[in-house]
Design goal:
Blueprint lengths: L15 E2 L4 E3 L15 H6 L7 E5 L5 E3 H17 L7 E5 L6 H10 L3 E5 L5 H11 L3 E4 L14 E3 L13 E4 H5 L17 E7 L7 E6 H14 L10 E4 L6 H7 L9 E4 L5 H10 L4 E4 L1 H9 L1 H7 L7 E5 L5 H10 L4 E6 L9 E3 L2 H4 L4 E5 L4 E5 L6 E2 L5 E6 L6 E2 L3 H7 L6 E9 L4 E7 L4 E3 L2 E3 L1 H8 L5 E11 L3 E10 L7 H9 L10 E4 L13 H9 L3
Parallel strand pairs: 3-13, 5-6, 5-7, 7-8, 8-9, 12-13, 14-15, 15-16, 28-29
Antiparallel strand pairs: 1-2, 2-19, 3-4, 10-11, 11-22, 16-17, 17-18, 18-24, 19-20, 19-21, 21-23, 23-24, 25-26, 27-28
């Protein structure tokens, strides 16, 4: 892709092309590999860098050098072949963050097999739905999570045990430690993997709220890796950095950036198995962390408790905080920079469907464009489309943000209808976000067409909770909305219409839901209502309910 300054008819200030009604990235384009027969693992392993330590377990201090990682990947991929794993097979990974998470992913993808991840907090029922859809032929998990795979009929490799025996009732076929000790078969036939082949199958709530498998190719992942390395200017001998992985590796950003991408740059990744504020803060000084990814509610907590935190923890190595999930306000941005001087805030915007890439702020000055999601990432294009007419709009006009670029997904797994409604025939991705792009190329998210609730960065689809509530024998109708909360961002609130004669209580509603969903999806507030407001076509008027719920705040 040509650099914006070399392209005719484009406003270099906003990136807008009047002829095509398209916004172009103002970032320097990142190079993409020309070899079509290339998998993401080979692409990463072939990159030269000067790094020594690849991964550190924040809790135990256990370390993996880059040599350890690549030796393990060779052994595990060879062992997977012995188990009959071939190109196109789906492998499920059910695990909290771990220094072994990257080894599993890289091994699977090196064979042209497909990695599908799931949230360890999900219930057995939620995981079984994903298994039924993706049809994995093998699963990796830890001992504590084995019960969530009970009855799934999938052979299992246990990650955190040295023996594959003693797991009665489970088809445990191996352990990761045994696989890592396998001597690689250098004569094994390696199937040709192309950039267009599927690498990951991650599940996203999408626009409608029904969970769908997002198909990302090896090319998508390579483009994301190149963007991350270019954004943070990594890979130089004089720029050795340490990242603290606080985000879940089962999520697109954690998987591609922290579980695979950063290994291409020589950076060190310190892995938190689960988020805990004290361990996060103590790890910064203990491991000389320079980059810290966060969601906005945690960043707010750092601002509000800055005096105590700075007295108790050594944060002098910290240089950058990376925030995503929602734009930061002026108060939060300025409050953070005042309390933590010398630390730069960088923000990012992306979707699972765009392999976590879309827009970012890369400097203090850019982050001070308050409320922005940032400027278009390298190699990306955007349109702002009128939701009524379908017409592409110009600078400072609000419509749905469409994205196009090398990180945009191939489509949804076995769901042509959902794919057609999200991707147009020329590769434009409808994000479901109402946005405008200003005269300097900054994207501002005005509202969400998608009705997802963002709880601590987790996506909670209201439609899923509504479908569950309607199975309760005493509920006639319901609606679930996001309720604002300074500590978690938003939490699910339910408006419930009781059946005639019912005395159903708020606690009973919350208990009914909590037994069937992951903790982050739980209903945390209930209000009873005579009827749910809907438009003539039957669509819930959530904005009216949000206004009602927040009117007394």
């Amino acid at each position: 892709m040509a650099h914006i300054n070399n392209m005719p008819k484009i406003d270099t200030k906003s990136g807008y092309n009047k002829t095509t009604s398209t916004f172009h990235s103002k970032r320097t384009p990142t190079p993409l590999p020309s070899n079509e027969n290339l998998d993401i693992t080979t692409f990463i392993s072939a990159r030269a860098h000067h790094g020594t330590i690849a991964y550190i377990d924040a809790t135990t201090g256990a370390r993996l050098t880059f040599a350890d990682v690549w030796k393990a990947v060779e052994s595990v991929s060879s062992s997977l072949c012995d188990h009959g794993i071939r190109k196109g097979d789906v492998i499920l990974l059910l695990s909290p963050n771990s220094i072994y998470f990257p080894i599993i992913c890289l091994s699977v993808m090196s064979l042209g097999a497909i990695i599908t991840t799931t949230n360890p907090l999900n219930t057995k029922n939620e995981i079984s739905k994903q298994i039924a859809d993706s049809k994995p032929v093998l699963a990796f998990t830890i001992v504590d999570l084995l019960p969530k795979l009970a009855g799934a009929g999938v052979p299992v490799v246990v990650i955190d045990s040295s023996s594959s025996t003693g797991f009665k009732g489970f088809n445990v076929v191996n352990t990761l430690s045994q696989m890592m000790m396998t001597k690689p078969k250098h004569k094994r036939v390696k199937e040709t993997v192309s950039q267009d082949d599927t690498a990951t199958l991650l599940y996203s709530s999408g626009t409608t709220g029904a969970s769908k498998g997002v198909i990302s190719s090896h090319r998508n992942l390579m483009a994301m890796v190149q963007t991350v390395i270019g954004r943070f200017r990594l890979g130089d001998q004089d720029n050795q950095q340490t990242f603290l992985c606080t985000v879940p590796m089962f999520h697109i950003y954690g998987l591609v950036a922290f579980a695979t991408g950063l290994i291409a740059s020589g950076a060190t990744v310190v892995v938190l198995s689960k988020f805990e504020m004290h361990e996060m803060l103590s790890s910064i000084g203990k491991y000389n962390v320079s980059y810290l990814p966060l969601v906005p509610p945690i960043l707010v907590a750092l601002v509000n408790n800055a005096d105590v935190i700075k007295k108790k923890y050594d944060l002098k190595s910290l240089k950058f905080v990376l925030s995503g999930g929602a734009p930061l306000s002026k108060e939060v941005t300025e409050g953070f920079m005042e309390k933590y001087q010398g630390v730069t805030i960088m923000q990012g915007y992306g979707l699972t469907e765009s392999t976590g890439i879309g827009a970012s702020t890369d400097t203090v000055e850019e982050s001070r464009r308050y409320g922005t999601a940032g400027m278009l990432s390298a190699n990306m294009e955007a349109k702002i489309v009128d939701t009524e007419t379908g017409r592409a709009l110009a600078v400072n006009q609000t419509g749905e943000l469409w994205l196009k670029g090398p990180t945009v997904m191939k489509g949804y797994f076995s769901n042509p209808e959902a794919t057609a409604s999200t991707l147009d025939s020329t590769g434009w991705l409808r994000t479901g976000d109402l946005c405008y792009i200003d005269e300097e190329g900054f994207i501002f998210v005005v509202d969400r067409l998608k009705e997802l609730i963002k709880y601590k960065g987790y996506q909670v689809p209201p439609a899923e909770l509504e479908a569950l509530l309607l199975t309760h024998p005493e509920i006639d109708d319901c609606a679930v909305i996001p309720f604002p909360d300074k500590n978690v961002g938003q939490f699910p609130m339910a408006y419930v219409v009781r059946k005639t004669g019912s005395n159903l209580s708020e606690k009973e509603v919350m208990d009914f839901v909590s037994k069937q969903v992951a903790p982050y999806k739980r209903i945390r507030r209930v209000a009873f209502i005579g009827s749910v407001p809907k438009n003539p076509s039957g669509k819930i008027l959530r904005k009216d309910l949000i206004k009602l719920a927040t009117s007394k705040l």
